[in-house]
Structures are given as C-alpha cells and as structure tokens.
Backbone:
C-alpha cells in the first residue's frame, strides 16, 4: 500500500512538472494548471523541519471564494514557472504576517490599519496567537476561501462577528495569557445588544461597532470616547450626557463621574448593557435611586465635590422612596412614583445650583412638582426636605417635633406606663399573698 | 330588693359600639400604617406584599381613617345627645370626665398604695385617673392623627392655605404619635383590661356594659357612693 502511494506521488509530481515545462509563458498559466497537481488532496511535501505539510488547495472553495477571478500568482508572486520544482527555494509559504502585507497590495487601508492595531503589532513582534486576515475572513482560516463580508457564510458577516471574536476571546486559557477578560462574549451575548442583534443587526451594536475591526486597539481607562461610541447610535442621550455635570467632568479628565455603562450595565461592564425595561437594569425604575447611591451615598466621594451624601437616605425615608420600596411592579408602572431622575433628569443632569436645573430654586421646583402634583405651588415645593435631615438649621419645626417625641413624650409615657404596670403587678401579688395567709389562718 | 341587683349598667349600647368601632379602626390603621413607617424592614415588605402592595394598603388606611373620624363624630353627637335629650347636666359630665386636683392627689395615693405606703388605694369616681388619661390621650392623639393625616393625604391643598413646613412636620408627628399610641394600647391598656390580676382573662364591662356591684365598690368607691345615694333617694320617693 505504502509503495502504491509512493508511486502515485511520483507520478503526480512528474505529471505536474511536465505541465510546468510545457508552459513557458507565465501569463498563460492559470488556475487549472496549478490545480491539476494541487487539487489532489494527497499532495504534500515532507521537510526535515516541518514534517509533512499538505499542499492541497480545495478547488471548489477557491471557485466559490470572492477571489475566484484572481490568478494563483496574484498572491504567490514568487512563483517562477521556469524554475525547476517550485519548492521552498522559489516560492515562499505565506505566513499570517506576509499574508497581511500580501492582502494589503489591494486592500491597502485595511492592511495598514490592521498592522497598526493591537493584533497587527503583536503579529509583527512574532506572536502567532493573534488573528491574521484569514482568521476572520475565510472559513477554516484558509486563504483560498476568503468570503465577502456581505455573505452570510463569512465569519465576519455582521450576525456572526461576536461568535468569531469569541473563538479567541472566550478562551479562558488564551485570554489569561494576555491578562484580558474572557467574559466579554458571555456578557455581550446576554446583554441588551447581544439579545437583540439577531433580530436587527443593522441597528444593534456588535463587537466591531465599538471596538472597530481592522484597527482594533486595547481599551484603556474611562475616556469620553466611550461615550462617543454609544453616541454613534444613541445620539440624543450621548449629546445630553456630554453637556451634563457628569459629561463635562469626564471631558475634564475626571474618572469619578458616571459614564453610560455605570448606570446601564450590570457591574459597570460595557459589554453587559441591560435594557432599562428589564428588572436587572441598574436604571430599572425601582433600582434608579440605589444606582445613583453607589456614588451619591458615598460620603468620602461626595465630600470631595462638596455634595450632600444624605440624598439617598432622605429620599428613602420620605413619601416617594417609601412608596417605591413597598409597591408592586404593576403599581410602580402605573403610579409613576418619583425617583432621582423624575426631578433631576437623567442624561442631562445638572448641578442643582445651575439656574437651568429643574430643582434650582422654588419656582423651578414647584414646576417640577407639578409634573405629578396638580396645582402644586411654591409653598408646596418649600415643604420638600431638599435631601437634608431635619436639624436646627433645616426644617426646624420638624426637628423640634422629633426631639419632643423622641427625647421627652415617648420616654416619659414609656416610663409612666411601665411603672404603672410593674407597681400594679407587685400590689396584686402582695395582696394575693395576704389573702392566702388569711385563708390559712 | 335593691341589694339583689348585683350588676350595674356602666356603659350604654352607644358607648359599647363606639369602643368596638375604635378597636376595629385602630387595629386596621396600625397594621396598615406602621409598615409604611418601617418600610425598610423585611417584615414590612412581606406584610405589604401580602396585601397586594402599598396602593392597596394605602386605600385601606384611608378607609379606616374615614371610619375612625366617623367614630369621633359619633362620639361628639353622642355627648350632645346625652346633654340635650337625656338631660344629663354638662357639669356632671365634666366632673366625671375631666381630670382635676382630686385626680392628682389620687394618682399619688395610687402610687403610694402600690408602694405599700398607704393601706388603701384612693377612692375613685366613675373613672380612675388611668382611665381619664386613657380617654384624653385618645382624644388628643385622635385630633393629632386626624390633623396630620389629612395634611399628608392632601398635601397640595394643605400647602395652599397652611405653611409648607407643616407637611414634613405632620409626617414626622403622625409616625411618632402612632408609635406612642400603639405602645400605650398594647402595653398599658392591654395590661389593664387583660393581664391585670383583677380582671384576667378579660375585663368584660365594656363588652357587656355591666359591672358587678362589688367591683364598682372596690374600684370606683365614689361612684358607688353616688349610686347608693341615688338608690336611697329613689326608694325614699317610693
């Protein structure tokens, strides 16, 4: 059997050489000529360094590839039809790196962007873990079966992009090697974007929508670019945000401020954005106050900006917060209880000192109250606690009432009531004993 | 013949109905109000959930409040009825209900007796000092609860003719007063009418309207003296 293969191989090589020698003119040399040898899946070469390497080219895949009209020599430029046995000496095998350059002879922009990207730069340094052109653009990574991005079979057809990136980025071992999170795919696919992308991929973000494709670079820190990315689809929200107190802070390089993902994704991970109508969302109506509180209830952080850190507590202990915490889902939806954004707005939130803020002064506040409380005026607005506990400086009447009840009336009544009970108990036991004694006598 | 009558009518049917209505509304108000005050506790969350959320509980609280106010009106009408139609003198009523110097002396006498300093307790009239306190604390608390409750029920209307600071103040007071009332009822009142050795397991006089002559003599000596005097006059007339 082995012998038979050997004979076959010799025969094929000889036949191929015959063809090569017959064709003296390279321009007359076409695909069919190459495939007459390379179309046989048994064709391979054996070298001492690499062992057995297949030299087979799938003719059918080549024929259905987007490059079907190109000649073999468009890429295999060093092929010389006149040289003997076009082996290692006169045809360089294409590596990922040389391939990137090769593709760049036509796809200049993509190739240049790729070579500067995190993947490309790493490849140049000799890292073979990173994807090359064919990793994403052909099935099985075969350079001969490049598929147009617009074809559903392409690994980077829009619907398939996330899954293709996941072949590496969902691989824990591989990602650990580069200290990259391996949860991005999992998070993305269960996020609002991931869940809806199959329904409307033209409008729903996938990996490349935010990270770019050829020019992908590693993400460092919190920058306005993160917001701009979201803004490429969510224009209104993003431009409102960029003008808000949070957005202007971000533009000044402040990393304490909330960005899109701080409120719209679980754990602040940009990959796990959750739709606001989902109970899991940090800005689902019932959860909004708690989400704002992650920063605004932090005394140290708030002190840094001279902002009150009692906003959450005071909200919680007043009508709105109480109703929110005790209502059913249906009631929350129907009653529309006020929460942070009801008065402060959401994306375009302003400092309350800003005259344009809905809570800047009693006139503005009254107008804000009227959103729900028909007929509310300035006097009504003035009753609001303004997120401060009652004290000698603020809401004095309430403070006096609190002190009166907590330190005088209730303790006094408790002492009076319990001493009455205790003394009556003692009396009745004493009397009982007396009666028993009288009975004995 | 008079001596055979061992039970004396202490509360008429109107008073018994008022008491029953108070029990029902007070309980309803307490169980639907306190969870709103202590909204963060898991027990409140569970309890409100059982009712079907705060909106259901809120409506229940307001209905109970309406009936509660109704009981107050009933009580006022009842007093007027007693004075104008039963010809009870207002002076008598005041003497029975209002705490006076005698009651203060009685209070110190009561504690003295409790402490073993006095052999006998003070002679009480129709209502002893604790009962008078109970009554007036009830009236006072009811007025406060109704006023603060209405402010919180209609805050926009309230703010249209009252200063705004009353709204958070009313909210605070409504809660404190509720806690105080519940404490007093559960601890002191329940002790007096259920757990106290002299009445255990239940003081039935407010339910049946009757009190035994013996007990009246023991606990409301003055009232018993009045009664005895009236009975004497009656028999003299006969």
Residues:
């Amino acid at each position: 059997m082995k012998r038979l293969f050997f004979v076959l191989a010799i025969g094929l090589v000889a036949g191929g050489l015959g063809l090569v020698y017959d064709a003296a003119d390279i321009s007359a040399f076409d695909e069919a000529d190459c495939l007459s040898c390379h179309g046989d899946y048994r064709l391979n070469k054996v070298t001492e360094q690499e062992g057995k390497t297949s030299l087979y080219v799938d003719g059918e895949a080549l024929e259905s590839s987007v490059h079907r009209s190109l000649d073999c020599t468009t890429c295999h430029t060093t092929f010389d039809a006149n040289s003997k046995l076009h082996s290692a000496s006169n045809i360089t095998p294409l590596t990922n790196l040389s391939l990137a350059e090769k593709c760049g002879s036509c796809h200049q922009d993509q190739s240049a962007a790729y070579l500067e990207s995190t993947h490309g730069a790493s490849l140049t340094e000799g890292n073979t873990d990173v994807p090359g052109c064919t990793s994403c653009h052909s099935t099985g990574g075969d350079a001969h079966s490049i598929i147009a991005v617009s074809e559903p079979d392409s690994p980077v057809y829009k619907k398939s992009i996330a899954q293709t990136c996941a072949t590496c980025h969902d691989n824990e071992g591989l990602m650990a090697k580069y200290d990259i999170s391996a949860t991005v795919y999992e998070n993305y696919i269960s996020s609002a974007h991931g869940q809806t992308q199959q329904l409307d991929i033209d409008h729903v973000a996938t990996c490349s929508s935010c990270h770019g494709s050829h020019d992908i670079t590693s993400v460092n820190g919190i920058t306005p670019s993160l917001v701009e990315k979201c803004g490429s689809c969510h224009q209104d929200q993003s431009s409102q945000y960029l003008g808000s107190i949070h957005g202007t802070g971000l533009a000044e390089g402040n990393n304490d401020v909330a960005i899109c993902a701080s409120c719209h994704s679980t754990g602040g991970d940009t990959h796990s954005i959750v739709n606001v109508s989902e109970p899991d969302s940090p800005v689902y109506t019932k959860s909004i106050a708690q989400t704002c509180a992650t920063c605004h209830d932090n005394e140290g952080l708030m002190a840094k900006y001279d902002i009150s850190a009692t906003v959450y507590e005071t909200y919680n202990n007043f009508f709105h917060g109480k109703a929110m915490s005790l209502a059913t889902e249906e009631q929350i939806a129907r009653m529309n209880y006020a929460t942070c954004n009801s008065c402060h707005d959401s994306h375009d939130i302003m400092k309350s000192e800003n005259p344009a803020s809905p809570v800047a002064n009693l006139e503005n506040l009254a107008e804000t109250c009227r959103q729900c409380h028909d007929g509310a005026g300035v006097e009504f607005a003035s009753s609001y606690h303004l997120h401060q506990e009652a004290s000698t400086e603020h809401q004095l009447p309430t403070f006096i009432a609190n002190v009166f009840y907590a330190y005088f009336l209730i303790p006094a009544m408790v002492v009076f009531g319990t001493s009455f009970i205790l003394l009556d108990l003692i009396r009745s036991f004493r009397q009982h004993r007396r009666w028993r004694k009288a009975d004995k006598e | 013949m008079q001596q055979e009558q061992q039970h004396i009518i202490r509360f008429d049917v109107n008073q018994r109905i008022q008491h029953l209505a108070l029990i029902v509304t007070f309980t309803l108000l307490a169980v639907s109000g306190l969870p709103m005050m202590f909204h963060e506790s898991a027990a409140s969350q569970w309890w409100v959930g059982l009712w079907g959320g705060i909106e259901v509980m809120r409506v229940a609280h307001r209905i109970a409040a309406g009936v509660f106010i109704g009981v107050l009106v009933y009580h006022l009408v009842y007093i007027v009825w007693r004075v104008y139609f039963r010809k009870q003198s207002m002076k008598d009523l005041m003497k029975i209900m209002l705490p006076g110097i005698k009651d203060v002396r009685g209070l110190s006498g009561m504690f003295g007796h409790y402490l073993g300093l006095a052999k006998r307790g003070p002679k009480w009239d129709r209502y002893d000092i604790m009962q008078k306190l109970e009554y007036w604390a009830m009236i006072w608390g009811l007025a406060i609860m109704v006023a603060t409750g209405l402010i919180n029920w209609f805050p926009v209307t309230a703010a249209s003719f009252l200063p705004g600071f009353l709204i958070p103040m009313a909210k605070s007071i409504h809660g404190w007063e509720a806690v105080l009332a519940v404490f007093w009822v559960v601890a002191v009142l329940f002790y007096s009418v259920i757990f106290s050795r002299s009445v255990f397991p239940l003081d039935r006089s407010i339910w049946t309207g009757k009190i035994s002559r013996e007990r009246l003599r023991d606990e409301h000596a003055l009232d018993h003296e009045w009664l005895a005097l009236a009975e004497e006059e009656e028999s003299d007339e006969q």
